Amino acid sequence: MRPTLFISDLHLAPQAPAVTRIFLDFLRGRARAAESLFILGDLFEAWPGDDCLDDPADGLAAAVVAALHELVTAGVGLAVMHGNRDFLLGERFAAASGARLLPDPWLLALPGGEFVLAHGDALCTDDREYQSFRALVRRRDWQQAFLARPLSERKAVAAALRQQSETAKRDKAQYLMDVNPVETDDFLRAHGYVGLIHGHTHRPAVHDHLVDGIHVQRWVLADWHASRGECLCWDGERLTRECLD
Ligand code: LP5
Ligand code: MN
């Protein structure tokens, strides 16, 4: 049986070429042996709209999309979920890469196991400021108005928001940037007590939840760095972390 792989939080950016190199090697190497690859959000550091694929100055977006397409052509299923940095990935990205855009959350039945997949940000409900920001930018009308603005302007807004976010996080209590435990247990209950796989918090771990007396595991994916990426591998029996460097 070919394995299923899960990754998230690569935050690909022109300023971090080493991470892109690890990812492209992964797509041309390890990922080729997979049945399917699930990217659970924040593949890109910031995605200002699919028209960045036409921007001759944006070689990264085009190169990554081409490599994803090669993977799909080689027979590997590809699914991409939005993260909080790349929630504007749209139908054009999907068509050009061959990826299926997955709703968040997504229930996944695999041979030998069932999982619920999420980016993870929606469970960080203690961060009220972030949740109101999220509610605004996920609105269809807001997105349509934003995407109607020139690409250069959208890139500038994205860069300003990234900086603002990094500054805001320095003053935030740690618990605000993690999932809320009660919300998470409710989520696990609502999704039939199957294992949860998510990213976003950059705190790779496996957590044991006891929900209504039922043991449920929550796997948190690692974010990627210049020296190291990571994927989670389902082989039909167990989940294992694999280091990519
Ligand atoms: O991303 P990360 O890890 O730094 O932190 C997140 C939360 N921050 C964000 C913001 C993104 O980093 C920036 C998005 C850039 C890409 C967008 C592309 C296109 C632009 C679209 C324009 C909207 O998601 C951070 C959380 C943290 O995770 C942990 O969960 O704490 O939340 C924040 O920092 C948000 C602030 O707390 C509140 C920001 C209010 C900004 C109000 C601006 C109103 C919108 C105007 C848009 C033109
Ligand atoms: Mn995220």
What is the structure about, briefly put?
Residues 3-204 form the Calcineurin-like phosphoesterase domain. 33% of the residues lie in helices and 24% in strands.
Describe the structure.
This protein is an alpha/beta fold and 245 residues long. It has one domain (4-121, 179-244): Metallo-dependent phosphatases (Purple Acid Phosphatase, chain A, domain 2, 4-Layer Sandwich). It contains seven helices and eleven strands. The strands form two sheets. The protein has a six-stranded mixed sheet with strand order 4-3-2-1-10-11, with helices on one face. A five-stranded mixed sheet has the order 5-6-7-9-8, with helices on one face. Helix 2 (59-73) links the parallel strand 2 (36-40) and strand 3 (77-81). It is globular, with a radius of gyration of 18 Å. It starts with a strand and ends with a strand. The protein binds ligand LP5 and manganese (II) ion. Manganese (II) ion binds next to loops. Pfam families: Metallophos. Pathway: Glycolipid biosynthesis; lipid IV(A) biosynthesis; lipid IV(A) from (3R)-3-hydroxytetradecanoyl-[acyl-carrier-protein] and UDP-N-acetyl-alpha-D-glucosamine: step 4/6.
Please supply descriptive tags for the structure shown above.
single chain, 245 residues, alpha/beta, Purple Acid Phosphatase, chain A, domain 2, six-stranded mixed beta sheet, five-stranded mixed beta sheet, 7 helices, binds ligand LP5, binds manganese (II) ion, lipid biosynthesis, lipid metabolism, lipid a biosynthesis, UDP-2,3-diacylglucosamine hydrolase
